[in-house]
Design brief:
The termini are far apart. The longest helix is centred in the middle third of the chain and has 24 residues. The chain has 377 residues and is of the alpha/beta class. Strands 10-11-13-12-14-15-16-17 form an eight-stranded mixed sheet, with helices on both faces. Strands 3, 4, 7, 8 and 9 form a five-stranded antiparallel sheet that branches. It has a four-stranded antiparallel sheet with strand order 1-2-6-5, with no helix packed on it. It has eleven helices and 17 strands.
Length: 377
Protein backbone atom coordinates (compact mmCIF):
# COMPACT_ATOMS: atom_id res chain seq x y z
CA UNK A 1 0.00 0.00 0.00
CA UNK A 2 1.54 3.29 -1.04
CA UNK A 3 0.55 5.96 1.49
CA UNK A 4 1.84 9.47 0.94
CA UNK A 5 2.58 11.20 4.24
CA UNK A 6 1.76 14.87 4.71
CA UNK A 7 4.65 17.25 3.99
CA UNK A 8 4.67 18.56 7.54
CA UNK A 9 5.11 15.02 8.93
CA UNK A 10 7.97 14.24 6.53
CA UNK A 11 9.68 17.50 7.43
CA UNK A 12 9.34 16.76 11.16
CA UNK A 13 10.97 13.36 10.70
CA UNK A 14 13.82 14.91 8.76
CA UNK A 15 14.37 17.57 11.43
CA UNK A 16 14.30 14.90 14.15
CA UNK A 17 16.83 12.79 12.29
CA UNK A 18 19.05 15.85 11.79
CA UNK A 19 18.78 16.65 15.48
CA UNK A 20 19.77 13.10 16.44
CA UNK A 21 22.70 13.09 14.05
CA UNK A 22 23.82 16.52 15.20
CA UNK A 23 23.93 15.36 18.81
CA UNK A 24 25.81 12.19 18.04
CA UNK A 25 29.48 12.40 19.03
CA UNK A 26 31.88 12.79 16.12
CA UNK A 27 35.16 10.98 16.12
CA UNK A 28 36.48 13.08 13.21
CA UNK A 29 35.80 16.52 14.66
CA UNK A 30 39.01 18.64 14.49
CA UNK A 31 40.25 20.18 17.72
CA UNK A 32 40.54 23.96 17.80
CA UNK A 33 43.88 25.35 18.90
CA UNK A 34 43.68 29.04 19.83
CA UNK A 35 46.24 31.24 18.06
CA UNK A 36 49.11 32.54 20.18
CA UNK A 37 48.76 36.01 21.68
CA UNK A 38 51.52 38.20 20.27
CA UNK A 39 52.80 40.68 21.17
CA UNK A 40 51.51 40.71 24.74
CA UNK A 41 52.45 43.90 26.60
CA UNK A 42 52.45 43.42 30.37
CA UNK A 43 51.80 46.01 33.07
CA UNK A 44 55.52 46.27 33.88
CA UNK A 45 56.30 47.06 30.18
CA UNK A 46 57.82 43.65 29.56
CA UNK A 47 56.62 42.10 26.29
CA UNK A 48 56.04 38.47 25.34
CA UNK A 49 56.35 37.48 21.68
CA UNK A 50 54.89 34.21 20.41
CA UNK A 51 54.74 32.46 17.05
CA UNK A 52 53.64 28.93 16.10
CA UNK A 53 56.27 27.23 13.94
CA UNK A 54 56.09 23.42 14.37
CA UNK A 55 58.82 22.54 11.90
CA UNK A 56 61.30 25.29 12.75
CA UNK A 57 64.57 24.46 14.43
CA UNK A 58 65.57 28.01 15.42
CA UNK A 59 63.41 31.10 15.99
CA UNK A 60 64.33 34.56 17.30
CA UNK A 61 62.88 38.08 17.42
CA UNK A 62 64.82 41.22 16.52
CA UNK A 63 63.64 44.78 17.15
CA UNK A 64 64.59 48.42 17.63
CA UNK A 65 65.26 47.93 21.34
CA UNK A 66 68.67 47.69 23.04
CA UNK A 67 70.33 44.30 22.95
CA UNK A 68 69.49 43.05 19.47
CA UNK A 69 68.06 39.60 18.68
CA UNK A 70 66.39 37.50 21.39
CA UNK A 71 66.32 33.70 21.06
CA UNK A 72 62.88 32.07 21.47
CA UNK A 73 62.07 28.66 22.96
CA UNK A 74 59.40 26.15 21.86
CA UNK A 75 56.70 24.65 24.10
CA UNK A 76 54.70 21.42 23.74
CA UNK A 77 52.17 23.16 21.44
CA UNK A 78 54.87 24.15 18.91
CA UNK A 79 54.66 27.79 20.02
CA UNK A 80 57.96 29.64 20.28
CA UNK A 81 58.10 32.48 22.81
CA UNK A 82 60.34 34.92 24.65
CA UNK A 83 59.73 37.75 27.10
CA UNK A 84 61.90 40.87 26.91
CA UNK A 85 62.14 44.18 28.69
CA UNK A 86 60.96 46.17 30.43
CA UNK A 87 61.08 48.55 27.44
CA UNK A 88 60.97 52.32 27.51
CA UNK A 89 57.70 53.81 26.18
CA UNK A 90 58.18 54.08 22.42
CA UNK A 91 57.18 52.65 19.04
CA UNK A 92 59.38 49.74 17.96
CA UNK A 93 59.71 47.84 14.73
CA UNK A 94 60.40 44.10 15.06
CA UNK A 95 60.58 40.91 12.99
CA UNK A 96 60.79 37.17 13.59
CA UNK A 97 63.61 35.07 12.16
CA UNK A 98 62.41 31.52 11.45
CA UNK A 99 65.35 29.34 10.43
CA UNK A 100 66.97 32.45 8.98
CA UNK A 101 63.85 33.65 7.15
CA UNK A 102 62.71 37.15 8.20
CA UNK A 103 58.96 37.32 8.81
CA UNK A 104 56.19 39.52 10.16
CA UNK A 105 54.36 38.61 13.35
CA UNK A 106 51.27 36.82 11.88
CA UNK A 107 49.14 37.74 14.92
CA UNK A 108 49.91 41.48 14.77
CA UNK A 109 47.92 43.61 12.28
CA UNK A 110 50.30 46.56 12.76
CA UNK A 111 52.76 46.54 9.85
CA UNK A 112 55.32 49.24 9.08
CA UNK A 113 54.84 50.67 5.56
CA UNK A 114 57.91 49.63 3.56
CA UNK A 115 58.95 48.74 0.03
CA UNK A 116 59.09 45.08 1.13
CA UNK A 117 57.08 44.80 4.38
CA UNK A 118 58.96 42.66 6.91
CA UNK A 119 58.48 44.72 10.08
CA UNK A 120 55.67 44.56 12.64
CA UNK A 121 54.84 47.44 15.00
CA UNK A 122 55.01 47.32 18.81
CA UNK A 123 53.78 50.32 20.81
CA UNK A 124 54.61 50.78 24.48
CA UNK A 125 52.49 53.70 25.73
CA UNK A 126 53.92 56.30 28.05
CA UNK A 127 52.29 57.90 31.09
CA UNK A 128 52.01 60.78 30.47
CA UNK A 129 51.93 60.25 26.68
CA UNK A 130 55.18 61.01 24.84
CA UNK A 131 55.40 63.64 22.11
CA UNK A 132 54.92 61.04 19.35
CA UNK A 133 51.75 59.61 20.93
CA UNK A 134 48.14 60.64 20.31
CA UNK A 135 47.12 63.27 22.87
CA UNK A 136 43.95 65.19 23.66
CA UNK A 137 44.90 68.29 21.67
CA UNK A 138 43.62 69.88 18.43
CA UNK A 139 44.61 67.68 15.50
CA UNK A 140 45.54 68.43 11.93
CA UNK A 141 44.84 66.29 8.89
CA UNK A 142 46.91 64.08 6.60
CA UNK A 143 45.86 64.31 2.94
CA UNK A 144 46.86 61.84 0.24
CA UNK A 145 47.85 62.83 -3.28
CA UNK A 146 48.44 60.80 -6.43
CA UNK A 147 50.15 62.70 -9.23
CA UNK A 148 51.66 62.06 -12.62
CA UNK A 149 55.33 62.99 -12.39
CA UNK A 150 56.28 64.72 -15.60
CA UNK A 151 59.94 64.55 -14.61
CA UNK A 152 59.85 60.76 -14.22
CA UNK A 153 56.96 59.85 -16.51
CA UNK A 154 54.98 57.76 -14.03
CA UNK A 155 52.40 57.84 -11.24
CA UNK A 156 53.74 58.91 -7.84
CA UNK A 157 52.32 59.46 -4.34
CA UNK A 158 52.77 61.89 -1.46
CA UNK A 159 51.14 62.85 1.85
CA UNK A 160 50.54 66.33 3.22
CA UNK A 161 49.99 67.21 6.87
CA UNK A 162 48.03 70.40 7.48
CA UNK A 163 47.96 71.92 11.00
CA UNK A 164 44.78 72.04 13.14
CA UNK A 165 43.72 75.56 12.13
CA UNK A 166 44.45 75.21 8.39
CA UNK A 167 40.81 75.02 7.27
CA UNK A 168 39.79 78.06 9.35
CA UNK A 169 41.23 81.10 7.66
CA UNK A 170 43.36 82.16 4.72
CA UNK A 171 46.84 82.59 6.19
CA UNK A 172 49.89 81.12 4.46
CA UNK A 173 52.03 78.56 6.26
CA UNK A 174 55.69 77.60 6.15
CA UNK A 175 56.32 74.13 4.74
CA UNK A 176 58.65 71.30 5.71
CA UNK A 177 59.54 68.67 3.10
CA UNK A 178 60.17 65.57 5.22
CA UNK A 179 61.92 62.60 3.59
CA UNK A 180 62.10 58.91 4.60
CA UNK A 181 64.80 56.21 4.53
CA UNK A 182 65.75 53.59 1.96
CA UNK A 183 63.45 50.84 3.27
CA UNK A 184 60.42 53.11 3.60
CA UNK A 185 57.83 54.87 1.46
CA UNK A 186 55.64 57.97 1.56
CA UNK A 187 53.39 56.44 4.26
CA UNK A 188 56.11 55.60 6.80
CA UNK A 189 56.51 59.02 8.43
CA UNK A 190 52.82 59.06 9.37
CA UNK A 191 51.96 55.39 9.96
CA UNK A 192 55.16 54.57 11.87
CA UNK A 193 56.97 57.85 12.53
CA UNK A 194 53.82 59.58 13.86
CA UNK A 195 54.98 62.88 12.37
CA UNK A 196 51.44 64.25 12.43
CA UNK A 197 51.04 63.64 16.18
CA UNK A 198 54.49 65.07 16.90
CA UNK A 199 53.50 68.28 15.10
CA UNK A 200 50.05 68.36 16.71
CA UNK A 201 51.55 68.07 20.20
CA UNK A 202 54.36 70.57 19.61
CA UNK A 203 51.97 73.12 18.12
CA UNK A 204 49.46 72.67 20.98
CA UNK A 205 52.26 73.20 23.52
CA UNK A 206 53.42 76.36 21.75
CA UNK A 207 56.80 74.76 21.02
CA UNK A 208 56.55 74.77 17.21
CA UNK A 209 54.93 77.10 14.73
CA UNK A 210 51.99 75.73 12.72
CA UNK A 211 53.42 74.36 9.49
CA UNK A 212 52.55 72.17 6.55
CA UNK A 213 54.58 68.96 6.18
CA UNK A 214 54.99 67.25 2.80
CA UNK A 215 56.06 63.58 2.86
CA UNK A 216 57.10 62.25 -0.53
CA UNK A 217 58.17 58.92 -2.01
CA UNK A 218 61.96 59.04 -1.97
CA UNK A 219 62.45 56.15 -4.43
CA UNK A 220 62.65 58.04 -7.69
CA UNK A 221 65.11 55.86 -9.60
CA UNK A 222 64.61 52.16 -10.20
CA UNK A 223 65.64 49.91 -13.10
CA UNK A 224 62.13 48.48 -12.75
CA UNK A 225 60.82 51.69 -14.33
CA UNK A 226 63.73 52.78 -16.51
CA UNK A 227 65.02 49.43 -17.72
CA UNK A 228 68.53 50.85 -17.28
CA UNK A 229 70.53 49.49 -14.31
CA UNK A 230 72.94 52.00 -12.81
CA UNK A 231 76.33 51.38 -11.23
CA UNK A 232 75.62 54.24 -8.82
CA UNK A 233 72.00 53.96 -7.78
CA UNK A 234 72.42 56.32 -4.80
CA UNK A 235 73.55 59.27 -6.92
CA UNK A 236 71.07 58.46 -9.67
CA UNK A 237 68.22 58.27 -7.17
CA UNK A 238 69.13 61.67 -5.69
CA UNK A 239 69.29 63.21 -9.17
CA UNK A 240 65.92 61.77 -10.23
CA UNK A 241 64.33 62.61 -6.88
CA UNK A 242 65.55 66.20 -7.16
CA UNK A 243 63.92 66.55 -10.58
CA UNK A 244 60.63 65.16 -9.30
CA UNK A 245 60.70 67.29 -6.14
CA UNK A 246 61.51 70.58 -7.85
CA UNK A 247 59.59 70.13 -11.11
CA UNK A 248 56.48 68.32 -9.84
CA UNK A 249 56.10 68.23 -6.05
CA UNK A 250 56.82 71.89 -5.23
CA UNK A 251 54.45 73.15 -7.99
CA UNK A 252 51.74 70.70 -6.85
CA UNK A 253 52.01 71.79 -3.22
CA UNK A 254 52.11 75.49 -4.03
CA UNK A 255 49.12 75.21 -6.39
CA UNK A 256 46.96 73.34 -3.86
CA UNK A 257 48.01 74.65 -0.43
CA UNK A 258 48.49 78.05 1.14
CA UNK A 259 52.24 77.79 1.64
CA UNK A 260 54.99 80.37 1.70
CA UNK A 261 56.76 80.11 -1.64
CA UNK A 262 60.14 81.56 -0.72
CA UNK A 263 63.30 80.13 0.84
CA UNK A 264 62.75 81.44 4.38
CA UNK A 265 59.36 79.71 4.38
CA UNK A 266 60.65 76.31 3.19
CA UNK A 267 62.56 73.61 5.07
CA UNK A 268 63.82 70.22 3.91
CA UNK A 269 64.93 67.36 6.17
CA UNK A 270 65.13 63.59 6.09
CA UNK A 271 66.52 60.47 7.69
CA UNK A 272 69.21 58.10 6.38
CA UNK A 273 68.72 58.02 2.58
CA UNK A 274 66.30 60.93 2.93
CA UNK A 275 68.89 62.80 4.99
CA UNK A 276 71.37 62.47 2.14
CA UNK A 277 68.70 63.74 -0.24
CA UNK A 278 67.76 66.67 1.97
CA UNK A 279 71.37 67.78 2.60
CA UNK A 280 72.34 67.44 -1.06
CA UNK A 281 69.26 69.12 -2.54
CA UNK A 282 68.91 71.71 0.22
CA UNK A 283 72.52 72.89 0.21
CA UNK A 284 72.60 73.04 -3.59
CA UNK A 285 69.33 75.00 -3.74
CA UNK A 286 69.53 77.63 -1.05
CA UNK A 287 67.42 79.86 -3.27
CA UNK A 288 64.57 77.44 -2.44
CA UNK A 289 65.28 76.13 1.07
CA UNK A 290 66.37 78.28 3.98
CA UNK A 291 66.26 75.46 6.57
CA UNK A 292 68.05 72.13 6.03
CA UNK A 293 68.21 69.07 8.28
CA UNK A 294 69.78 65.62 8.14
CA UNK A 295 68.98 62.76 10.57
CA UNK A 296 71.53 59.90 10.52
CA UNK A 297 72.32 60.87 6.95
CA UNK A 298 74.61 59.39 4.32
CA UNK A 299 76.39 61.84 2.02
CA UNK A 300 78.82 60.33 -0.45
CA UNK A 301 81.84 62.47 -1.45
CA UNK A 302 80.60 65.71 0.19
CA UNK A 303 83.31 67.88 -1.42
CA UNK A 304 81.60 67.30 -4.76
CA UNK A 305 78.06 66.46 -3.63
CA UNK A 306 77.45 69.84 -1.95
CA UNK A 307 80.18 71.70 -3.78
CA UNK A 308 77.85 74.58 -4.66
CA UNK A 309 77.40 75.47 -0.99
CA UNK A 310 81.12 75.04 -0.24
CA UNK A 311 82.26 77.23 -3.12
CA UNK A 312 81.00 80.44 -1.48
CA UNK A 313 80.60 79.83 2.27
CA UNK A 314 79.88 83.48 3.00
CA UNK A 315 76.90 83.46 0.65
CA UNK A 316 75.83 80.07 1.98
CA UNK A 317 75.87 81.26 5.60
CA UNK A 318 73.91 84.35 4.65
CA UNK A 319 71.16 82.33 2.96
CA UNK A 320 70.96 79.49 5.49
CA UNK A 321 68.66 80.03 8.44
CA UNK A 322 69.67 76.66 9.90
CA UNK A 323 71.74 73.63 8.93
CA UNK A 324 70.90 70.97 11.55
CA UNK A 325 72.59 67.55 11.56
CA UNK A 326 72.22 64.77 14.13
CA UNK A 327 73.40 61.17 14.44
CA UNK A 328 73.47 58.53 17.17
CA UNK A 329 76.79 57.44 18.65
CA UNK A 330 75.96 53.78 17.92
CA UNK A 331 74.77 54.56 14.38
CA UNK A 332 76.66 52.82 11.56
CA UNK A 333 76.67 56.15 9.68
CA UNK A 334 78.29 58.16 12.47
CA UNK A 335 81.71 58.16 10.77
CA UNK A 336 80.19 59.44 7.53
CA UNK A 337 78.46 62.23 9.49
CA UNK A 338 81.70 63.22 11.19
CA UNK A 339 83.48 63.34 7.84
CA UNK A 340 80.72 65.55 6.45
CA UNK A 341 81.01 67.89 9.44
CA UNK A 342 84.79 68.16 8.91
CA UNK A 343 84.18 69.24 5.31
CA UNK A 344 81.72 71.91 6.43
CA UNK A 345 84.11 73.10 9.14
CA UNK A 346 87.09 73.21 6.77
CA UNK A 347 85.12 75.31 4.29
CA UNK A 348 83.62 77.67 6.86
CA UNK A 349 79.94 76.66 6.53
CA UNK A 350 77.95 77.13 9.76
CA UNK A 351 76.08 74.14 11.17
CA UNK A 352 74.50 72.68 14.30
CA UNK A 353 75.74 69.10 14.81
CA UNK A 354 74.41 66.86 17.57
CA UNK A 355 75.87 63.50 18.56
CA UNK A 356 73.20 61.72 20.56
CA UNK A 357 72.61 58.35 22.14
CA UNK A 358 71.08 55.71 19.91
CA UNK A 359 71.56 53.77 16.70
CA UNK A 360 70.08 53.74 13.20
CA UNK A 361 66.42 53.36 14.18
CA UNK A 362 63.05 55.09 14.30
CA UNK A 363 63.01 55.71 18.08
CA UNK A 364 65.97 58.04 17.42
CA UNK A 365 64.41 59.76 14.39
CA UNK A 366 61.11 60.57 16.09
CA UNK A 367 63.08 62.43 18.75
CA UNK A 368 65.10 64.25 16.08
CA UNK A 369 61.91 65.51 14.44
CA UNK A 370 60.63 66.63 17.85
CA UNK A 371 63.93 68.51 18.41
CA UNK A 372 64.18 69.94 14.88
CA UNK A 373 60.63 71.21 14.29
CA UNK A 374 60.67 73.78 17.16
CA UNK A 375 63.75 75.42 15.60
CA UNK A 376 62.03 76.14 12.29
CA UNK A 377 60.55 79.38 10.96
Amino acid sequence: MNMQLPLCFSLSVCLLQFSVFAQAPSTNRPTFTPPPNSPEVHADRTVTFRVRAPKASEVSVTGEWPGGAKTMTKDDNDVWSVTIGPLEPDVYGYSFSVDGFRALDPMNPGVKPMRSPTTSILEIPGSPPRVWEFQDVPHGAVRLHDYESKALGRLRHLRVYTPPDYDRGNRRYPVLYLLHGSGDNDATWTAFGHAQWILDNLIAAGKAKPMIVVMTDGHAYSPQFTGMPSTNMISRNITDFERDLLDDVLPLVEANYRVRNYAAGRAIAGLSMGGGQSLTIGLNHLELFGWVGGFSSFVRDPENTVGKALADPQATNKKLKLLWIACGKEDRLMENNRQFIEVLKKNGVRYDFRETEGNHSWPVWRRYLADFAPLLF
